[in-house]
Amino acid sequence: MSDASTSVSDPALPPAERGxxxxxxxxxxxxxxxxxxxxxxxxxxxxTTGPAIVASRAVVxxxxxxxxxxxxxxxxxxxxxxxxxxxxxxxxWLPDLILGVVLGLGGALLWRKRxxxxx
Length: 119
Fold this sequence. Notes:
Elements: H1 3-9, H2 15-18, H3 29-87, H4 93-113
Helix pairs in contact: 3-4
């Protein structure tokens, strides 16, 4: 037998000396390649899905907060009307007048603080 045939079949020799892969299989290149792929995927994920998740959470929490705020405002106004109705003399218009004045003054104050839209 020749020297070349024994070196290819001898498992005790390193792969490069056996003639397989030309030395590519030496070292820890599979783990380095996997680490590189993992780093690239993590980088892309942090730059794309990270801001998207933050934005979607802000939209969802803002929507839920807005709905709860509207519900709380409606309950507060209803409670105020019922409270004024029960403690004021038997006039149907008086609680509406009081809340109308209070809410009208609040609206006028907010209207005065507004800033003109500049295009």
